[in-house]
Design a protein that fits this description.
The protein has helices at about 55-60, 155-160, 215-310, 320-430, 435-440, and strands at about 20, 25, 45, 50, 75-80, 80-85, 105, 110-115, 130, 145, 150, 165, 170, 175-180, 180-185, 205-210, 210. The chain has 5 helices and 17 strands. By secondary structure, it is an alpha+beta fold. Helix content is about 50%, strand content about 15%. The chain is elongated, with a radius of gyration of 63 Å. Among the domains are: about 60-210, Cysteine Rich Protein, CATH 2.10.110.10; about 225-295.
Length: about 450
Amino acid sequence: MTDIFCGKCNKICYGEALQARGDYFHQDCFKCKACLKDLMTNGFYNYENEFYCSRDYQKLFGVKCTACGQFIEGDAISILDETFHEGCFVCARCNKPFPPGVNVNLIGDDYICDDCIQPANNEIPNGSVHGSPSWNLVNNPDTEVNWDGVPYCEQDYQDEFGVTCAGCGGYITGKVLQAGEKHYHPQCSRCARCGEMFGEGEEMYLQGSEIWHPDCSDEYQREIEAEEHDRLEFEQAERDRERQKIEEEERYAREMAERERAEKERVERELAERERVERERAERERIERGRVETERLEREKAAKERAERERAERERIERERERIERERADREKAERERMERDRVERMEREKAERERMEREREEREFMEREREERERVERERAERERIERDRMEREKAEREREIRLEVEREQQERVREEQARQQKLYSERGLCRFEIQQAN
């Protein structure tokens, strides 16, 4: 989930937040830049990405009426780069407002109605302008308007000094609706929320760069608050799910740690139990061996006694045949039981013997591996020594070869010197080398 940052303080917005022109604000941060008053419940103006209340915006950037000097809000009349309230645009002589559709005459800096001035021969006096309905002051290409003593036709005047409608883009002459720095034809001023036109004198709110009906502004505010409430509930649910997930992970981690601890204790108990069983088994084997030895001695003694009794009772055998048969049966049963015990003991001894042999075999294999490892290390060491000896021998042979080559070069040098010396000697005697060789 993405965090929402305040467009004023750049901190994360928790709880309720306001949205204006695509940015979010804390309620305490959404204030007028000039007077720091709360803008949450009133209309606001946006100028150069800063928010102002109506009073401070008009004071800093508003347009004043040329006649009364008060700030203009709502319907206004724009004429010759001047702006008037509808009630302030009156004849300078009779102080009557100009009805829509009448001619307005400009004499000097004053606007005069037709009733107060009667030009001869229907001529347009210097500086006067005939208008069409809605105070259309310039509607004829032949009409001239004086501006600073310079006459302009309608088209050039509008291109130079005209006011443009923010709705349709056309020039405005006559009645104009001003909202902040924007101007509209009355028929072009429509609510950005519902699309309906503003009635004459109807109150409007400037939301950023858009104009809204008061009802639309309240409804929008309620929608924004509802959306914000839904978003905050969703974020709270997300945080709850995240907290539950973290708690589940912590619980799972604790369970895993508990299981690991229990498993470790179980292994330790099993190990201790195996050691105890092993000690008991060894003790039983020792006791069993003592018992077997005692039984053997007893059997030997019994055999001797039996032989003596047989020898003493040989005469009574026939009379005591039945008793002897019973005794024989008892003895056979006892013998079978003894043989069974002997068989069990023999199996246990064989098992112990197998375990001993297995341990000995493992020890022998371990010793064999150690021996092989030592032999391998010894072979590697011997191989390294052999390689080192071969390298040293090669280096020695190389040095000896270089010495021999050096000696041969010295010998060849001495031979060449000797030949040169003999050549020089023979040259002094007038003999050529060829003759010397022949002589030799």
